[in-house]
Each structure stands twice: as structure tokens, then as C-alpha cells.
Amino acid sequence: MKILLIPPKEVHLLWNEVAPIIDKGLRGPDGTVAEDFLEPLKKGSNILWIIVDGFDIESVVVGQFVDYPRKKALSIEVWATKSGHKFDEVYPLIESIKKFAKANGCEYIEATVRKGLAKKLKWNDKHSFVTLTL
Q1: Cα–Cα distance, 37 to 25 (Å, whole number)
Q2: pLDDT of 71-105, one tens digit each?
């Protein structure tokens, strides 16, 4: 398996393959869909990585830089696999994303993930993101 950082000008070439995977990773109550990420990815305000096994896209990661008043973070907005699981296979590739974040001046990576993935990541689980639909 290999992780590839996709340049903004090439996002449209892979969009039909990555959009369904992104949609699998979006289960929040706000109604966000993969299409909402297309323009920010093409403009470079969001970042797209794909994890491939041969020629098959197995996982997609979408992130963006967040400048807080005192620190800069890489925020992972979507981390989804084609199968909906098998995160163990792609977890070691997060090292590439960590190096990317450090090289771009980030002090940490943040993500909102399902509890199951949080356990596998073994990251600091400081709080959960919860909502009440009205």
C-alpha cells in the first residue's frame, strides 16, 4: 500500500473514484456530502490523500490546515476506506501525513472520528463530538 498526496489540479481526474469513498466516511448530522469537498480540494484549501493498493484506491483522507491563535493544526475531516473498515491496513500510512503536517508548521493533527477508529488510532481522545438533531 502507498499513500499519495493529490495535487489540486489533478483532483478532478480521480473524483469519480474518491467521491463514493468520501461519502462512506460522512455520517454526521449536518448533511455534508462528498461534493461539498470538490471545490475546496480543487482550489487547494483542502488536501486530498489516497491510499492505493496497486491501482485500487482503498482509502481516502481529506484534511485542511487550521490556524488557531496560538497553534496550527492539520484537521482531518474525512478518513474513509472503500470497505468501511480495514483501518489496520492503512494506519501505518498516517506517518506520511504526520510528516506532511510537521513540514507545514503544524503542531498537531486533529480529527473527528468514530469511537472504533479512535481506539485503533490510539490518539489522545480528549472529547467526543456530539449533536442533538432538532
Answers
A1: 13
A2: 999 988 888 888 777 666 666 678 888 899 999 99
Tell me the whole-structure pTM to 2 decimals.
0.84
Q: Dihedral, CA atoms, 73, 89, 79, 41, nearest 10 degrees?
A: 80
C-alpha cell of 38? 470538490
**Series of mean pLDDT values for 10-residue runs along the chain (134 residues):** 93 97 80 93 97 91 94 89 73 83 92 70 63 46
Residue 110: φ, ψ to 5°: -125, 155
Could you tell me the CA-to-CA distances from 99 to 74, 118, 123 in Å, in that order?
Answer: 11, 20, 16
Q: Domains in the chain, ordered, with CATH?
A: 2-121 (3.40.630.30)
